[in-house]
């Protein structure tokens, strides 16, 4: 399909991740205003405001959710409380737990705070008690009782010399505790709902409290009485005092009196004058932002949950119920920076901008999020009123389209100069949720949409949209509509030449349309389940489809036949795109995997694992060097093509290996074994190390040379060598080298030095069983060799005994052969000649028998002469002569029967065989 010179992609690596870092709970900003501390399940995440990156993740070892935490005013000590009723003190810069102690509370801790000196810690529990801890001396100093229900708010007076603690619980009252006497000084009663926050003036004489009863109360702390009750007409979650002396005239502040900012259920910041109780400034909502309801007590998804002042940088930080962090400039209360703490399910994601500097994300909400990749700052786009389902970007990258469950489509434009995004057009016409959208490829002239109402629409875009900077939203009308399928239309795609349109449906079919009038050109049938995605090849007349049956198919546009099928996903394939000029495919599935395919070979080149849930979003950059994926696990992953980098790295590694191999050969030739062994270990080549050790052992005094070489190695090299020995010891061919190295280590290293080796326990566990097996095998070989020596000695003794018996028989004149009946008469003559020849042979060569006897031990010689092996007494010469005469008389042959003659012939043959190896002359018959 493409030229063979094109370099195929082989791998992608994670370049960056946008992960959820806040899922609700307490938020605190460091005193130096550089970091945001927030909870996320079992972790406390530390977000750097300048970069928008999470720099630390402080996680509980027991995997219990964190119920509360607090940071000391000096930004040094972080204390967390978990559901396990444990308090942990952390060195948060190193994510190290310094101390753990029991909270003593009988139920989880709901609130925590430090005093201005960073030495006293107050904890409010769900059991209605408040406990104070001396963090330096590490003991509990106070146990304050009397608060009914959960103590959800504790705060020290800013003047540490007063030693006063303010708290609030479920009875909607504010209690003031004297820490000198551990008694409640007074109870401030004004609110009729939960008190949400307390704000003290710098001199500590005035207190402003807020509650969900839609009022704020100003208190005189000297008289402990309320001086003003301000109705704010919304449930207030946080109150912040404006800094005195600052120029805030831009928001309507003209007097020098006390002013405060409220953040609540309406989702806007408002400025109030304490003396008159008037609202002097209300923040302007973003374009398209739904207006908050004053009657809402529970608040909606746009309401604020907390607010913090940043006096050093003249800013205010607010957190919304959607887990978004908003940083406002204080003089004007305009939005400066925005971070998304949690995005829920990612349904689609696309690169945006001429240089792919942004990504636009559709989450499980009506708002679109546009992230700037350089700073992770985010814009939230309001316009849709229901969940956004799909996105697509025009060719130049400055305009994109979206569709949602509100039955509408919208066109948005990014300003390259300011980076701001605004909605420029909206199209209404579908009667059900719009599940897919595709933009024109040649120029910004139209968009196509597919809906759950089974129809496909083509929308014309007016020429004025290309230069429209903002203002009103133009209405779009559908140029043509066609009922294309029998079920939901899941995907639509426009061909590269803007002449064809493909649609994939839940009815398991894919259809090809002419864009001019939406006339049907053909139907692709073959998938066993619904089609999730369709995509045109950028260079060939080929269409790719992915389905819930777990396969990806390639179809020819000429004959509508299936050209190739790619199978490898274990679940639905949700997205497929062409990369590398149409020679390869990227697919993502419900199994959380992203696969890279080569079309020519039908081969899955690489499987990428970075998500834990369905990967709905998949898109490639214009330069084809980046890829972005979005998953239902709320993670956005940016991948970089590392094919060229890996190829260069592999080539450099091969060159380095060749140089090192040559250097190793030179060192072995020069017999510089220490450097050779160290180089082989650094190459991490056990076989090469084994070859070096064999070379060393082949030298003279090989074991001593090996001992000296091994002892001069570094500690890490010895550990690596010990690991190699474990592997060598499993093979009988290499076990001797392994045992030699182990012997060198055990002989010359002390037990203390051996215990410093990493992985010593596992190495010993691997060495012991095979060493025992080798020991048993060598033991059996030794026994077998001893048996062979024993057999050899006995074979020599038995042979000598036979020679001695034969000589004795010949001396006695015994017949050695029995001839047949024709030659029976010659038996005596043959025997006499044989005996005589044997006697002459002994007389001629007497040393031959003596030499044989010299090899036999005295004990073996004692066995000669007796039939049963027992030693016989020597006979005198007279007795010998008498025996010889008797034998001569008995030797005379007697007439024998034919059976006796046959037995004689068999005996003659046996004797001939027995005498064959003996050192005596053969007697001719």
From TrEMBL:
Query: Which GO CC annotations does the UniProt entry carry?
Result: small-subunit processome
Q: Which residues cross the membrane?
A: none
Where does it localize? Nucleus, Nucleolus
The biological process GO terms on file are:
rRNA processing
Print the keywords alphabetically. Answer: Nucleus, Repeat, WD repeat
Ranges of Basic residues compositional bias? 912-925
User: What is the designated name of this protein?
Assistant: Transducin beta like 3
- Native source organism of the sequence: Lepisosteus oculatus (Spotted gar)
């Amino acid at each position: 399909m493409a030229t063979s010179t094109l370099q195929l992609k082989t791998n992608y690596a994670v370049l960056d991740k946008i992960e959820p870092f806040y899922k609700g709970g307490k938020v605190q900003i460091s005193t130096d205003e550089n970091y945001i501390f927030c909870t996320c399940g079992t972790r406390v995440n530390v977000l750097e405001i300048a970069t928008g990156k999470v720099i630390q993740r402080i996680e509980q070892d027991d995997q219990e959710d964190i119920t509360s935490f607090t940071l000391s005013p000096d930004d040094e000590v972080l204390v967390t409380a978990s559901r396990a009723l444990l308090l942990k003190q952390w060195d948060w810069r190193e994510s190290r737990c310094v101390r753990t102690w029991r909270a003593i509370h009988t139920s989880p801790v709901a609130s925590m705070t430090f005093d201005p000196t960073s030495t006293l810690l107050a904890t409010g529990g769900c059991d209605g008690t408040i406990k104070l801890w001396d963090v330096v001396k590490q003991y509990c100093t106070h146990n304050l009782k009397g608060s009914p229900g959960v103590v959800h708010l504790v705060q020290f007076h800013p003047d540490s010399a007063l030693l006063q603690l303010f708290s609030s619980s479920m009875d909607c009252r504010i209690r003031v505790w004297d820490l000198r006497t551990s008694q409640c000084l007074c109870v401030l009663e004004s609110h009729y709902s939960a008190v949400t926050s307390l704000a003290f003036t710098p001199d500590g004489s005035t207190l402003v409290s807020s509650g969900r009863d839609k009022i704020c109360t100003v208190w005189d702390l000297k008289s402990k009485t309320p001086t003003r009750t301000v109705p704010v007409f919304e449930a207030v979650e946080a109150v912040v005092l404006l800094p005195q002396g600052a120029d805030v005239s831009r928001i309507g502040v003209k007097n020098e009196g006390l002013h405060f900012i409220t953040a609540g259920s309406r989702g806007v910041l408002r400025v109030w004058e304490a003396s008159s109780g008037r609202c002097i400034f209300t923040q302007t909502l973003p374009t398209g932002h739904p207006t908050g309801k004053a009657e809402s007590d529970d608040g909606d998804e746009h309401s604020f949950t907390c607010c913090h002042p940043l006096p050093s940088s003249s800013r205010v930080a607010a957190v919304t119920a959607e887990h978004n962090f908003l940083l406002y400039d204080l003089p004007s209360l305009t939005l400066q920076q925005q971070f998304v703490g949690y995005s829920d399910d990612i349904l689609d994601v696309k690169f945006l901008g001429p240089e792919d500097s942004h990504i636009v994300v559709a989450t499980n909400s009506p708002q679109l999020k546009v992230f700037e990749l350089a700073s992770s700052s985010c814009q939230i786009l309001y316009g849709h009123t229901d969940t956004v389902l799909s996105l697509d970007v025009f060719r130049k990258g400055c305009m994109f389209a979206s569709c949602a469950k509100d039955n509408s489509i919208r066109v948005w434009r990014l300003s390259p100069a300011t980076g701001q995004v605004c909605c420029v057009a909206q199209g209404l016409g579908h009667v059900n949720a719009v599940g897919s959208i595709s933009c024109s490829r040649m120029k910004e002239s139209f968009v196509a949409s597919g809906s759950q109402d089974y129809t496909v629409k083509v929308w014309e875009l007016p020429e004025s949209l290309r230069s429209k900077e903002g203002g009103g939203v133009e209405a779009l009308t559908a140029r043509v509509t066609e009922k294309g399928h029998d079920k939901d239309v899941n995907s639509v795609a426009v061909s590269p030449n803007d002449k064809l349109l493909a649609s994939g449906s839940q009815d398991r079919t894919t259809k090809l349309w002419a864009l001019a009038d939406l006339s049907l050109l053909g139907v692709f049938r073959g998938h066993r389940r619904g089609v999730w995605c369709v995509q045109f090849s950028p260079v060939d007349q080929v269409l790719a489809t992915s389905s819930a049956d777990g396969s990806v198919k390639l179809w020819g546009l000429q004959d509508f036949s299936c050209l190739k099928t790619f199978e490898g996903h274990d679940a639905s394939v949700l997205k497929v795109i062409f990369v590398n000029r149409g020679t390869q495919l990227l697919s993502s599935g419900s199994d959380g995997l992203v696969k890279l395919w080569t079309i020519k070979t039908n081969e899955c080149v690489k499987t990428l694992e970075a998500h834990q849930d369905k990967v709905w979003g998949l898109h490639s950059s214009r330069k084809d060097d980046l890829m972005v994926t979005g998953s239902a696990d709320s993670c956005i992953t940016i991948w970089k093509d590392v094919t060229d980098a890996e190829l260069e790295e592999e080539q450099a590694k091969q060159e380095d290996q060749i140089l090192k191999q040559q250097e190793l050969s030179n060192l072995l030739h020069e017999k510089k074994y220490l450097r050779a062994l160290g180089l082989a270990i650094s190459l991490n080549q056990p076989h090469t190390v084994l070859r070096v050790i064999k070379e060393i052992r082949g030298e003279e005094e090989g074991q001593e040379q090996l001992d000296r070489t091994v002892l001069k190695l570094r500690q890490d090299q010895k550990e690596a060598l010990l690991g190699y020995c474990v592997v060598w010891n499993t093979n009988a061919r290499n076990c001797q080298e392994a045992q030699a190295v182990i012997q060198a280590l055990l002989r010359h290293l002390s037990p203390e030095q051996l215990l410093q080796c990493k992985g010593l326990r596992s190495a010993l566990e691997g060495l012991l069983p095979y060493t025992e097996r080798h020991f048993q095998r060598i033991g059996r070989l030794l026994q077998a060799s001893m048996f062979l020596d024993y057999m050899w000695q006995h074979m020599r003794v038995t042979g000598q005994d036979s020679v001695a018996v034969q000589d004795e028989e010949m001396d006695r004149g015994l017949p050695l052969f029995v001839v047949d009946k024709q030659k029976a008469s010659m038996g005596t003559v043959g025997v006499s000649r044989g005996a005589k020849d044997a006697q002459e042979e002994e007389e001629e060569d007497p040393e031959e028998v003596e030499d044989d006897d010299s090899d036999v031990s005295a004990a073996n010689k004692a066995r000669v002469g007796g039939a049963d092996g027992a030693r016989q007494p020597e006979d005198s010469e007279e007795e010998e002569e008498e025996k010889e005469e008797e034998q001569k008389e008995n030797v005379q042959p007697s007439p024998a029967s034919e059976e006796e003659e046959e037995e004689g012939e068999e005996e003659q043959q046996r004797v001939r065989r027995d005498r064959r190896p003996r050192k005596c002359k053969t007697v001719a018959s």
